[in-house]
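Quick one - inputs below.
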Amino acid sequence: MRIVIPLFDGFTALDAVGPYEVLKMLPGAETVFAAETAGPVRDSAKTLALTADAAFGDITACDVLVVPGGRGVRDFLTDPGLLDWVRRMHATTTWTTSVCTGSLALAAAGLLDGLTAASHWSAAEDLNELGAVYTGERVVFHDEQRIVTSAGVSSGIDMALALAGRIAGRTTAEAIQLMIEYDPQPPFDAGSLDKAPQAAKDLLTAGLNR
Amino acid sequence: MRIVIPLFDGFTALDAVGPYEVLKMLPGAETVFAAETAGPVRDSAKTLALTADAAFGDITACDVLVVPGGRGVRDFLTDPGLLDWVRRMHATTTWTTSVCTGSLALAAAGLLDGLTAASHWSAAEDLNELGAVYTGERVVFHDEQRIVTSAGVSSGIDMALALAGRIAGRTTAEAIQLMIEYDPQPPFDAGSLDKAPQAAKDLLTAGLNR
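Output:
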């Protein structure tokens, strides 16, 4: 089972690494990070590079595609070659998935037309403009279309565990959850627009490092 | 505020990237991945490399040290030069932290003598043998010693948010939590030894890909 995670300049590292850490433990998993050219690819903050071991052109098929988000996804959206690659991969996958604004790439590739989909909360309008229907749900499965989208950044862990359950069964997914000791205990309760206090939202509007 | 994340062959990527994604958003944060030599460093599965932009020898001080775990930490533990580097960093930090079996490195460096500490559940005995006192808590703060340890892999996100709150105040930490949309909704409830069903534990004993 080949799992491919595309990288692009300005991706968000946790979007990619959360699902990677879960899916790589699936029986028979072979995980490949890919990019336009093989080599290091910088994240949105430019302080971390992940190595792509393959170029997009080297990969003609995969079982699971995991498209991360990040500010750099905007460039990705306007590259017809990349969107065509996403479409060609999707034609071969069992599951095509996204984390955070990665769903914008799936939408721009025409894979989410008229479908409900998750994304980072800040990208709701953009997602709708690309033909999908934003929902605040954390993980959205469309079995018939073989598509799973998930919300901002950290949601990729929840998505990947749910997907692991679909692919390999509940017990395997639970074993992976135990292995990564995913028993979340956030010290605050501000992880969604509904829950975050206004002061925290105001601070984001003013701008944090990203 | 300089945040340093040391890498070594066989680290666990999510241990490093979870806290990175949180702490890099702190006001004034400058995050540096470091390793024995600068360049790509492979994780425990060898299917992902993160780039170290600095060598340990280039770094003489930092405000926050985040030591990840992973199977490769075993080699790290027996390298007197590396343990000496950890001790020298700790002499300069405001907070010295670990995720997963990263706490074994802190213990081997003599920083956890007689202190309660968290680690991956599978490393409890090893941690105790190195002079710390394993606890199943997810995040353990020792304010006087300026040390924070956290449990397996995914716990680094909880640790980093709690630390962000200590460093920059609750509202900033909440804004970061909202930015990474950390509103966990695990599809299963198997994230600790207490919660995981026996069948999942048996599967781990039999061996998963790692």
